[in-house]
Amino acid sequence: MEEEKRRQICSNCDRPKPICICHVIPSEPIATKTEILILHHPHESRHKLNTTPLLVKSLTNITTISGRRLRHHHISASLPKPSRTIYLFPPSPSSPAVTLSDFKSQNRTTSDPPPPVRLIVFDATWKHAKEMVKASEEVLREAGAVRVCLDAGIDESVSGGSIYDSELFLRMEPVGGCVSTAEAVARCLGALEVDGEEIERKLISVLKEMVRLQSEFLKPMRPRPKLLKKRLQNQQEEE
Ligand SMILES: [Zn+2]
User: Fold this and answer.
1) Is residue 126 classed as helix, strand or coil in its secondary structure?
2) Rg of the Cα trace of the chain?
3) CA 21–ligand 1 middle distance (angstroms)
4) Residue 208 CA to ligand 1 centre (angstroms)
5) What is the CB neighbour count within 10 angstroms for residue 156?
6) How far, in Å, from the CA of 20 to the mean position of ligand 1?
7) Separation CA 178–CA 135 (nearest Å)
8) Which of 32, 97, 154, 220 is packed most tightly, with the most Cβ within 10 A?
C-alpha cells in the first residue's frame, strides 16, 4: 500500500505523490523581463531530481530546449533593443567572464529602466556543459553573448555534479548538486530583475521545499553507508 503510494505520479508536477511540490509552486507563474533559455543536455532530462520543470512551472518567460548545442533558430527571435544576451558559465583562461554583479551595474547604466536580458543557461554536468558551450561558441559569438558567472567562486573540483553546485544545497545530501540550475537562475533573476530580490526569494523557497521533501523521501529508501556513517558521527558529536 505504502509502496504503491510512493510510485504514484502527480500529473501536475510530474513528481511522485509524496514529494509533490504543487503547494509551493507560485499559483501565478512569475513574470520576468528577462527571457530565460535553458539548454538541457538530453541525458540530464532523465534525472529525477532535475529542477528545470520546476522553473518552467514557476516562471512565464522561460523556454527549455533539449540538445547538445545552441543553434541559430533557438535565439533568432528578436528582443526589443537594446537588450543583451548573456550566458551563464564560469570563466576560463581563454574566455573570461563578467561577474553577475558587474554585469548588473553595467546594464543599469545603459538605460533606465535597464534593457531586458536574454539569459542562456546550460543545464548539464560539468563535462557535458563544457562540450555544449564549445559546440555553441559560434552561435554565442554571433549573438554577441557575454559570458557571465555567478559572483561566488565556483569550484570545478566538484566534478560530476551540476556546474552550478552551490553553498546552499551542496551539503544537503543526497540531493546535493542536483537542484542548482534552478538556484543559479534564481540568483541571476535576483540581479537582473527590478524586483529581483523578491523573485529570487520566492524561487529559493520553492527549491528549499523541494530539497526538504526529496531528502525525506529518499532517506528510508536507500540509506547509503557513507551517509549513515556521517550521520552517526554527527550524532556522536552532538552527544
Ligand atoms: Zn504535484
Assistant:
1) helix
2) 19
3) 5
4) 16
5) 12
6) 4
7) 23
8) 32
Contacts of 162 (CB under 8 A, 6+ apart): 123, 124, 125, 126, 177, 178, 180, 181
pLDDT single digits (tens) 168-210:
443 343 444 444 788 889 989 999 999 999 999 999 888 888 8
| Mean pLDDT of the 208-233 span | 66
> Ligand 1 centre from 10 Cα, in Å?
5
CA distance 181 to 162: 7
Whose grid coordinates read 527590478? 194
> If you measure from the C-alpha of residue 238 to the centroid of ligand 1, how many angstroms do you get, rounded to a whole number?
36
Distance 225 CA to ligand 1 centre (A): 31
What number of helices (H) and strands (E) belong to the chain?
A: 8, 6
Distance of CA 147 to the CA centre of its chain: 16
Q: How far does residue 55's CA lie from ligand 1's centre (Å)?
A: 14
Predicted pLDDT of residue 165: 47
3-class state of residue 71 by DSSP: coil
CA–centroid distance, residue 56 to ligand 1 (Å): 13
Q: How far is the CA of 122 from the centre of ligand 1 (A)?
A: 25
Nearest to 38 by CA among 132, 103, 104, 116: 132
Of 181, 117, 108, 163, the C-alpha closest to 144 is 117
Nearest to 190 by CA among 89, 90, 103, 82: 103
By percentage, how much of the chain surpasses pLDDT 90?
Answer: 32
Distance 104 CA to ligand 1 centre (A): 35
